[in-house]
TrEMBL record:
Homotrimer. Residues 315-342 form a coiled coil. The active site is at H238. It comes from Sulfurifustis variabilis. This is UDP-3-O-acylglucosamine N-acyltransferase. Pfam families: LpxD (PF04613). One of its GO terms (molecular function) is N-acyltransferase activity. PANTHER family: UDP-3-O-ACYLGLUCOSAMINE N-ACYLTRANSFERASE (PTHR43378), UDP-3-O-ACYLGLUCOSAMINE N-ACYLTRANSFERASE 1, MITOCHONDRIAL-RELATED (PTHR43378:SF2). One of its GO terms (cellular component) is membrane. Catalyzes the N-acylation of UDP-3-O-acylglucosamine using 3-hydroxyacyl-ACP as the acyl donor. Is involved in the biosynthesis of lipid A, a phosphorylated glycolipid that anchors the lipopolysaccharide to the outer membrane of the cell. Keywords: Acyltransferase, Coiled coil, Lipid A biosynthesis, Lipid biosynthesis, Lipid metabolism, Repeat, Transferase.
Length: 342
């Protein structure tokens, strides 16, 4: 499909500098784009590539327009404009309704006529699959679970009994929604499993990455609110609540019963302890450990950068001495006060 740059500008709310009639067929990165393709500049570290690109047009902010002599689409948020252009030029395939012959749909399940059930998928009794939903190959939808309208379970996705997935969601391969939470009680030297009786409730317009796991609650529900975006290999424990439009990069781990606010952002490998409260609009940088509640919006970090091993060993040795140094400092301060007669 080819569309003029003027039409793309109209769709994303940008302005054309140069030839509005240039035809765009696809999106591409700056260093590989060619005729008929549009690229974008959202990170100024790659500004040098703009002068060299062969793209038919480039999406950029007005301040960077001078770096590109060709046709440009000026937009205050190039990443957002590019995302919308890419979605328009490369739409997802339409769902083809029907059931694969190898799929198993148990009696009592409610599957909309417009839904797609892929090869070897299993839909248990009392489950609901709504209009236009796509249940990909090898997926499992448990007893009494619900998959909302136009939601796509790509492949090998598990949705446990009584869990609910909202509308317009995307669950990537291997996602697990509603596994048992990690709950055990000590009986002498043994661990006795605590039944996990809650559900997972996923709101509308949520994306859950490949091999990400969201555990069901112990008694209450684990809740992933509307608009949340989760990357691959994330662990969300039982009874966690994640607020609207929060985003998490890969390998984030959240321990049980923690509440995350709305519009938060967590970098890769962030670890969050259990029973904490994180305010709205909190950003935590990658590899940080959150061991206490965060009551105010802001940017937080606790990571130590990598350094040569010998230097780190010396630093670690000094860290072990901090308690002793603090004690000696308190004693010295007390002696100074006595000398001053305070």
């Amino acid at each position: 499909m080819a569309v003029t740059l003027a039409e793309l500008a109209r769709r994303v709310g940008g302005q054309v500098r140069g030839d509005p009639g240039v035809e765009i067929r696809a999106v591409a990165p700056l260093d590989r784009a060619g005729p008929g393709e549009i690229a974008h500049l959202s990170d100024r570290r790659y500004r040098a590539l703009v002068a060299e690109t062969r793209a038919a047009a480039v999406v950029l902010v007005a301040e960077d327009a001078g770096a590109f002599k060709g046709t440009a689409l000026i937009h205050p948020n190039p990443s957002l404009a590019f995302a919308r252009i890419a979605a328009f030029l490369h739409p997802a395939p339409a769902v083809a309704p029907g059931r694969h012959p190898t799929a198993f749909v148990e009696d009592g399940a409610r599957v909309a006529d417009s839904a797609r059930i892929g090869a070897y998928a299993v839909i248990e009794r009392e489950a609901t699959v709504e209009d236009g939903a796509s249940i990909g190959p090898g997926c499992y939808v448990g007893q009494g679970a619900r998959v909302g309208a136009r939601t796509c379970l790509v492949a090998q996705v598990y949705v446990g009994a009584r869990c609910e997935i909202g509308t317009d969601c995307l669950l990537q391969p291997g996602a697990v929604i509603g596994a048992d939470g990690f709950g055990f009680a000590k009986d002498g030297e043994r661990w006795i499993k605590v039944p996990q009786l809650g559900r997972v409730i996923v709101g509308d317009d949520v994306e859950i990455g490949a091999n990400t796991t969201v555990d069901r609650g112990t008694l209450d529900d684990t809740v992933i609110a509307r608009g949340v975006k989760l990357d691959n290999l994330i662990q969300i424990a039982h009874n966690v609540r994640v607020g609207e439009h929060t985003i998490m990069a890969a390998c984030v781990g959240i321990a049980g019963s923690t509440s995350i606010g709305s519009r938060c952002a967590f970098g890769g490998q962030v670890g969050i302890a259990g029973h904490l409260d994180i305010a709205d609009d909190v950003q935590v940088l990658g590899t940080s450990l959150v061991s206490a509640s965060i009551p105010k919006p802001g940017v937080y970090s606790s990571a130590l950068k990598a350094e040569p091993a010998d230097e780190w060993r010396r630093t670690a040795a000094r860290l072990r001495q901090l308690d002793e140094l603090a004690r000696r400092l308190r004693e010295a301060e007390e002696e100074i006060r006595k000398l001053k007669g305070e």
